[in-house]
């Protein structure tokens, strides 16, 4: 899947070099490669255009971190935008309804509706501990109802028995009543496959939607159908209040374009991905994992991630050595730490990485991102001598620094108190092993 994107980007990484900043000129060729690769993967043209525009906007002017090549930095931007175009965060299935929560399955014949109904039932039973009822309203395809019944048996889900001659609306109403009386948490309703252009069929599923008031109306779409699938999705989205997408057959030789286009075209998130024929072959859809899979560059992505964490390894190691050798931690080191924290995406991001002991200490001195910026300003206003020997900071020097940094003397005092706290923390860390802490930060 998306093999071409990977190989085209590999070329880009090698050729885009030697620049400290990404510019419109230096990324032009690279963007052309990305564009070609997306079109080859059957991503819809408007989506490609929008995607390229977004990557360009994010990339131009971006500084390239010292540990990355410009090509790698651009891959980082492409990766982020791939995630964004697929919805960013994972979108959970919504079951917040008076039971039964009804899930209506819509889609073309052969898309994988019946199979996905079974898989979803299994997933809800296992992952969410729900009591699930499977219902088939597909009276047109002779074996459809039996197919779902068989799957229900296989996974141990309840199945609603259909009487001969019942119409879809009658089945739906009776099933809803049955589910209420038998305390089912969730009722999954499989429908007949239909073409969007078939007005009678579309009217029927609309009527089912009105009757059942589903909390989720999921459009099941075959990833292998590429652009066709996306166009159908659009027609369905216009006719039915869809709430999400199930993208099936991602295990096949799908070129993958549908994964990128479908959200953009329908405005609905992909909630699940079908990755095998068997009943366990359904996964919650994670845009970030999908983006990594599409790029297929585990090594480069790892590198980018590490750089984005922004630990300037050399500086950090120098600091570790300095502290180990018994030299005191001064305000220059303090400032460097702030800069590193900022590179790492602020205090919040770093807190997750630090050992608890240090996190607690840092919380005690109440460092947040805003304070971090002011702190740097104050240290900048000090002379080199003052930074190395903070003990010489008496009232008049403090006043000068406060004026220079545009803060009050109290703030300077607060910073010095924080610095002392951190100095103590560093001594503590030295005992506990600075090297260990830095490894933790890299992790
Ligand atoms: P429906 O007409 O929409 O109900 O489609 P079906 O559920 O009958 O599926 C059509 C075919 O696609 C069947 O052979 C399924 O086994 C197969 N299928 C469905 N989902 C997947 C999937 O995620 N991966 C693979 N490999 N096959 C799938």
Automatic annotation (TrEMBL):
GO CC, any one term: signal recognition particle
Residue ranges of every copy of the SRP54-type proteins GTP-binding domain listed in the record: 100-296
Domain of life assignment: Bacteria
Top-level enzyme category: hydrolase
Domain AAA+ ATPase span(s) in chain numbering: 99-252
CDD domains: SRP_G
Record-listed GTP binding positions: 107-114, 190-194, 248-251
Main location: cytoplasm
Cell compartment(s), UniProt: Cytoplasm
Keywords in alphabetical order: Cytoplasm, GTP-binding, Hydrolase, Nucleotide-binding, Ribonucleoprotein, RNA-binding, Signal recognition particle
GO molecular function, one term: GTPase activity
Domain Signal recognition particle SRP54 helical bundle: residue ranges: 1-86
Reactions accelerated catalytically: GTP + H2O = GDP + phosphate + H(+)
GO biological process, alphabetically ordered: SRP-dependent cotranslational protein targeting to membrane
InterPro entries listed in its UniProt record: AAA+_ATPase (IPR003593), P-loop_NTPase (IPR027417), Signal_recog_part_SRP54_M_sf (IPR036891), Signal_recog_particl_SRP54_hlx (IPR013822), Signal_recog_particle_SRP54_M (IPR004125), SRP (IPR004780), SRP/SRP_N (IPR036225), SRP54 (IPR022941)
Function comment: Involved in targeting and insertion of nascent membrane proteins into the cytoplasmic membrane. Binds to the hydrophobic signal sequence of the ribosome-nascent chain (RNC) as it emerges from the ribosomes. The SRP-RNC complex is then targeted to the cytoplasmic membrane where it interacts with the SRP receptor FtsY. Interaction with FtsY leads to the transfer of the RNC complex to the Sec translocase for insertion into the membrane, the hydrolysis of GTP by both Ffh and FtsY, and the dissociation of the SRP-FtsY complex into the individual components.
UniProt note: domains: Composed of three domains: the N-terminal N domain, which is responsible for interactions with the ribosome, the central G domain, which binds GTP, and the C-terminal M domain, which binds the RNA and the signal sequence of the RNC.
Description of how the protein assembles with itself and partners: Part of the signal recognition particle protein translocation system, which is composed of SRP and FtsY. SRP is a ribonucleoprotein composed of Ffh and a 4.5S RNA molecule.
UniProt record similarity statement: Belongs to the GTP-binding SRP family. SRP54 subfamily.
Protein name, entry field: Signal recognition particle protein
Organism: Nitrosospira lacus
């Amino acid at each position: 899947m998306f093999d071409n994107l990977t190989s085209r980007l590999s070329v880009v990484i090698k050729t885009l070099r030697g620049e400290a900043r990404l510019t419109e000129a230096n990324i032009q060729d690279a963007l052309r490669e990305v564009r070609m690769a997306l079109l080859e993967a059957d991503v819809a043209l408007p989506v490609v255009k929008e995607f390229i525009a977004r990557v360009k906007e994010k990339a131009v002017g971006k500084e390239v971190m010292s540990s990355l090549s410009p090509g790698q930095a651009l891959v980082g931007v492409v990766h982020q935008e791939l995630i964004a175009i697929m919805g960013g965060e994972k979108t959970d299935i919504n079951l917040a309804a008076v039971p039964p929560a009804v899930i209506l399955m819509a889609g073309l014949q052969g898309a994988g509706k019946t199979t996905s109904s079974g898989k979803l039932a299994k997933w809800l039973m296992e992952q969410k501990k729900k009591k699930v009822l499977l219902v088939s309203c597909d009276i047109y395809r002779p074996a459809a109802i039996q197919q779902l019944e068989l799957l229900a048996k296989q996974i141990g889900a309840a199945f609603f028995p259909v009487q001969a001659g019942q119409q879809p609306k009658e089945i739906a109403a009776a099933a809803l009543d049955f589910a209420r009386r038998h305390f089912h948490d969730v009722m999954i309703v499989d429908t007949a496959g239909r073409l969007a252009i078939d007005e009678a069929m579309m009217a029927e599923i609309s009527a089912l939607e009105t009757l059942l008031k589903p909390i989720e109306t999921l459009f099941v779409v075959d990833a292998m159908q590429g652009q066709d699938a996306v166009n159908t999705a659009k027609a369905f989205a216009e006719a039915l209040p869809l709430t999400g997408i199930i993208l099936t057959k991602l295990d096949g030789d799908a070129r993958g374009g549908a994964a990128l286009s479908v959200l953009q075209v329908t405005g609905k998130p992909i909630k699940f991905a079908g990755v095998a024929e068997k009943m366990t072959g359904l996964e919650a859809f994670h845009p970030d994992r999908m983006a990594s899979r599409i790029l297929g560059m585990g090594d480069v992505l790892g590198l980018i991630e590490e750089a984005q964490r922004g630990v300037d390894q050399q500086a950090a190691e120098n600091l570790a050595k300095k502290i180990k050798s018994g030299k005191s931690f001064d305000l220059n080191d303090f400032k460097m730490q702030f800069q590193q924290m900022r590179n790492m995406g602020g205090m919040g991001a770093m807190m997750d990485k630090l050992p608890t002991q240090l996190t607690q200490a840092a919380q005690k001195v109440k460092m947040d991102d805003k304070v971090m910026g002011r702190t740097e300003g104050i240290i900048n206003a000090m002379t080199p001598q003052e930074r190395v020997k903070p003990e010489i900071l008496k009232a008049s020097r403090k006043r000068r620094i406060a004026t220079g940094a545009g803060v009050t003397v109290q703030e300077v005092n607060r910073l010095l108190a924080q610095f002392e706290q951190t100095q103590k923390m560093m001594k503590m860390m030295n005992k506990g092993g600075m090297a260990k802490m830095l490894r933790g930060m890299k992790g």
